[in-house]
Amino acid sequence: MIRFVLCLGALVLGAPSLPAQGPLPKPLPKPTAEPAKPAPRSSNPIKEVVRADLGPAEVGTPEALTASLYAFISGPKDQKRDIEKIRALFHPQARLMVAARHPEHGAFLRPLELEAFLSFAIPQWEKGFFERSTAVSVQKQDGVAQVWSPYDIRLTADGPAMYTGINALQCAWDGKRWWITHLAFQSQATAALAGDSGK
Questions:
Q1: What is the pTM (predicted TM-score) of this model?
Q2: Are 83 and 92 within 8 A, CB to CB?
Q3: What's the per-residue H, E or C state across 114-155?
Q4: b or e along 154-170 (b: 16 or more beta carbons within 10 Å of the residue's beta carbon)?
Q5: Is residue 68 classed as helix, strand or coil in its secondary structure?
Q6: How far apart, in whole angstroms, are the C-alpha atoms of residue 174 and residue 63?
Q7: 114: buried, middle or exposed (CB in 10 Å: 19+, 13-18, 0-12)?
Q8: Residue-wise pLDDT tens for the chain (199 aa)?
Q9: Would you say 145 and 59 are in contact if contact means Cβ atoms under 8 Å apart?
Q10: Distance (Å, rounded) from C-alpha 129 to C-alpha 79?
């Protein structure tokens, strides 16, 4: 038993007194060629993640920015959404917040990063989704704007509204265009959805 414990200890600790099995390997030659240098990072932060180039008609004002959001996410079933355009509406550091209500536990908040939100939402939008603004109210001071936009959601262009809700967008001007820097939203089901669920 003592001999077994000593041998086990030698294996675990790599006892230097044990004879090596065969000659020691020769050291590897040092590489002569210099390692490849990484590609330089872009000085433009919006190029680090693929975003479409949007024009003044899409991001020139807070109102245009809001209208573009509704236009880019809406469309009939099986119509592919342009993720690069949707992403380009949001500043690279933008955040989202869902204000929701659990039927048993009440109100709660769920913060989301943009990419996580898009990975969940886009497959749902492509089943048929039309979100329309019913009003837009903008408060602006220089390069900061707050947009308050009630909306409704339909599954087809002329179908009944299944949800109503509110979008609260915080927007900022960088000297060239407006960005969504924060989006908070909340929605609730309508009687049309309750009737559809009961069929």
A1: 0.72
A2: no
A3: HHHHHHHHHHHHCCCEEEEECCCEEEEECCEEEEEEEEEEEC
A4: bbeeeeebbbebbbebb
A5: helix
A6: 16
A7: buried
A8: 433 333 333 333 344 443 444 454 566 566 565 655 554 443 444 445 678 999 999 999 999 999 999 999 999 999 999 999 999 999 999 999 999 888 888 999 999 999 999 999 999 999 999 999 999 999 999 999 999 999 999 999 999 999 999 999 999 999 999 999 999 999 999 998 877 654 4
A9: no
A10: 10
d(CA 59, CA 9) in angstroms, rounded, equals 69
- C-alpha span between 161 and 196 (Å, rounded): 11
| Distance of alpha carbon 118 from the chain centroid | 5
